[in-house]
Amino acid sequence: MTKIRVLVLILVFQFINNTSKANNGYELWMGYEKITNKNLFVKYQTLFSVIYLPQNSQDETIAILKKELQLASKKMIEQSPRFVNQVSEAQIIFEINKAQNKINEEGYDIQTSINAQQKTQIKIQAKTNIGLLYGCFELLRLVQLQIDPSQIHTTSSPALSLRILNHWDNINRSVERGYAGISIFNWHTLPDYKDKRYTDYARANASIGINGTVVTNVNANALFLTHDYLVKVKALADIFRPYGIKVYLTARFSAPIEIGKLKTADPLNEEVKNWWKQKANEIYSLIPDFGGFLVKANSEGQPGPQNYNRSHAEGANMMAEAVAPHKGIVIWRAFVYSNEQPEDRAKQAYSEFKPLDGKFNKNVLVQIKNGPIDFQPREPFHPLFGALPNTPVMMEFQITQEYLGQATHLVYQGPMFKEILESNVDASKKVIDVVENKINGLSGISGVANIGNDINWCGHPFAQANWYAFGRLAWNPRLSASQIANEWIQQTWTQDKNVLATIQDIMMSSYENMVNYMTPLGLHHIMGNGHHYGPMPWGNTLSRADWNPVYYHRSDSLGIGFNRVATGSNAISQYEAWVQNKWSDSSTCNEKYLLWFHHVSWNHRMKNGNSLWNELCYKYNEGVKGVAQMNSQWKSVATQINAEGYDQVKQLLDIQLKDAEWWRDACLLYFQTFSKQPFPLHYPKAKFDLPYYQSLNFPYAPGNGK
Ligand code: GCW
User: Fold this and answer.
1) Cα(515) to centroid of ligand 1, in Å?
2) Which atom of ligand 1 is nearest to 168's Cα?
3) Among 94, 36, 238, 246, which residue's Cα sits nearest to residue 161?
4) What is the DSSP-derived secondary structure letter of residue 285?
């Protein structure tokens, strides 16, 4: 055989054998690839041939559901379903059953059975049309995962009532901490131009159970509350409603002054109260199911009740009163800290909010970031979880990777979300239990969105896995990170078992690798000023001490780390005694939090016998090696996944590897100026010297959007 023939044969073989998905990422996890398993293909063809839907063709949600079934059937099993009016004729039956007591208002029950005519039937029951839509997406997910229909028995209700994306999107379409293009919300052409993307966005969210979206930045612009903009928001709300998604807005506390021409925004002032009531009435007259307000107050320069010597509770309650008659809620952020305060920044949110427990109106939730500082690669859980037994609380995760390599690094956040949720707040209770516990009927979770107008929505082809993971965990926080990764890969990259396992491995190791090459052993906030990309542990030039990296690592000739135990800031005292016991002694403290809680000597003995300095070197290099491993694993699947996607990720992984080395070398050279110790034997030599790393400057790094 000639060489050319062999080559042609190889190419043909690869083409036939290629079970990978070719896409540009726009379809997210709803590519609905053709079912490759022949047996299942036939079974699903039969099942999806005759479908019964509730007989209300006017209902928009049911129309969406129908369209989804048509699209998915066409793509996965290459046929169009027939919709029938008789339950008895159908093989897939969607029906409302208000008496179904195994589920809540948004839940669904999906059961396979064999009917009298020996035909397999799948019945999807829910109490509401939205529940049916969620059930439909679940069924389609199971089909995409090529589950045998006989195995389909699932009863599921969302664990949390509020599952919300927070967009830090500005009126001019810049996105604060956004790395995937500009905002998908085009305020200029709204309300008249309804970009198809709004519908696709709502559909994607509904497919993973997200039921709310805050479309505006928490660093809020009062203009959004003017009539002209509310009309635009209404247009979005109308598009999102049939997908079960409520719209929320951020409310700028000083709006009564800025757009209401009042002299004050004092929450106890009658005119101010009245202004907010009128504003709420206006909003609800346009958007009857408006979700409510999200507020960042007295934090990083935002106005708030403290400008008038009022408490956060007084501020929140005033707004809560305005939306209460309309069943709206107020989500008040606990992300507060002030540089005028001499107190450790990690302590300030607890100090301010703990005394307010039980003082909020019934329709107020306090939204708490996962950790006490600020979305760092790794933080212990926020001490407010478990400390506000009389206040509904919401978890705030950051899906956009502000401090996690942004849209350049492959970091799957599933393991990070889980690490926080599974942390014990005391001997018998986990963060997950606190978050799931409804108070005043409310519980919830927010994710700061990583969505922009990039063709694949999230920038890095793997970043959409974090949006997916957030939604899946918001629905069921007990799912495992690896299961979610596995589902996502099957719906996006491949069904091939070996390739799937390799990609899953890359994803599952990516979080720990990133922590290691950026901030191992409890280090935090040592990244570039402002844009937060790349290392800058030497940073000490910002006007606020608590924005400078040196504030956080506290290296000196004696050692490194932030002393947060009794001899230091005592931030540890904000945790339950059971937790304190685990972390308060530097010789027994879980080493992933060592430098978060302790200032230890460079020669501190680690549990494995290494000195702290050597262990730090070791950890940084582990991170780099981990990324090198991700790189070679990725290369190993090159011919088995779609070429365009492969190449994109490959290029990004190359940058990530360079960045990981940059982090390691810049940080260690800098810390060495304090430790005065040599690198361990055979340690990789830094490419450049410290002054070089210190000279690097990125004035136009993305995400600072104003
Ligand atoms: O992480 C920090 C970001 C700010 C952000 C702030 C917050 C919206 O650097 O850009 O502001 O948190 O969460 O309010």
Assistant:
1) 20
2) 8
3) 246
4) H
Q: Distance from the CA of 88 to the center of ligand 1, in angstroms?
A: 55
Instruction: Give 95 Cα–ligand 1 centroid separation in angstroms.
Output: 44
Count of domains forming the chain = 3
b or e along 180-208 (b: 16 or more beta carbons within 10 Å of the residue's beta carbon)? bbbbbbbbeebbeeebeebebbbbbbbbb
Same domain, 142 and 169: no
If you search the block for the tokens 């009126």, which residue do you land on? 171
Q: Which amino acid residue places its CA nearest to atom 2 of ligand 1?
A: 374
- Kindly give the interhelix angle for 612-636 and 497-518, rounded to the nearest 10 degrees: 150
Same domain membership, residue 283 and residue 302: yes
| Å from CA of 446 to ligand 1 middle | 14
- Nearest of 215, 207, 216 to residue 243 by alpha carbon: 207
C-alpha to C-alpha distance for 295 and 517, rounded to whole angstroms = 34
Average the pLDDT over 290-301 and give the result.
97
User: Does 136 fall in a domain?
Assistant: yes
pLDDT per position as a tens digit, 449-469: 999 999 999 999 999 999 999
Ligand 1 centroid distance, CA of 74 (Å):
43
Residue 16 lies in a domain: no
Catalytic residue among 402, 512, 661, 665: 402
Domain presence at residue 656: yes
**Tokens 């996944």 belong to which residue?**
641
| CATH number of the domain to which 31 belongs | 3.30.379.10
Q: Are 120 and 149 in contact (CB under 8 A)?
A: yes
Name the residue range of residue 367's domain: 162-492
Active site residue 454: no
- Beta-bridge partner residues of 333: 367
Tens digit of each residue's pLDDT (9 = 90 or more) over 156-172: 999 999 999 999 999 99
**For ligand 1, what atom is nearest to the CA of residue 296?**
14
Nearest alpha carbon to residue 465 among 446, 499, 491: 491
Determine the straight-line distance between the first and last CA of the chain, rounded to whole angstroms.
64
Domain membership flag for residue 580: no
Task: Supply the residue whose CA is at minimum distance from atom 12 of ligand 1.
Answer: 374
Residue 687 per-residue DSSP state:
S
Return the structure tokens found at 276.
């907010």
The C-alpha R_g of the chain, in whole angstroms, comes to 26
- Residues in contact with ligand 1 (CB, 6 Å cut-off): 168, 176-177, 218-219, 296, 300, 335, 374-375, 402
pTM (global) more than 0.90: yes
Kindly state whether residues 379 and 264 are assigned to the same domain: yes
3-class secondary-structure state, position 329: strand
pLDDT in tens, 651-696: 999 999 999 999 999 999 999 999 999 999 999 999 999 999 999 9
Do 52 and 101 lie in one domain? The reply is: yes
Which mutation among 167, 332, 374 tests ligand 1's pocket best, with the greatest number of atoms within 8 A of CB? 374
* Catalytic residue from among 138, 344, 374, 661: 374
| Residue 348: strand, helix, or coil | helix
- In the numeric block, which tokens belong to residue 374? 């600020």
- How many residues in the chain? 706
CA distance 121 to 123: 6
Q: Specify the ligand 1 atom closest to the Cα of 369.
A: 13
Atom of ligand 1 nearest to the CA of 176: 10
- Judgement on whether residues 171 and 119 belong to the same structural domain of the protein: no
Indicate the SS3 state at residue 558.
coil
**Does residue 300 carry a catalytic annotation?**
yes
Q: How far apart are alpha carbons 561 and 395 in whole angstroms?
A: 27
Is the same domain home to 125 and 233?
A: no
**Of the residues 156, 191, 208, which one is the last residue of a structural domain?**
156
544 pLDDT band (50/70/90 cuts)? confident
User: In this structure, are 335 and 224 located in the same domain?
Assistant: yes
Distance 109 CA to ligand 1 centre (A): 39
Tell me which of 195, 300, 433, 591 is the catalytic residue: 300
Q: Can 433 be counted among the known catalytic residues? A: no
Scan for tokens 């995409």, then name that residue: 144
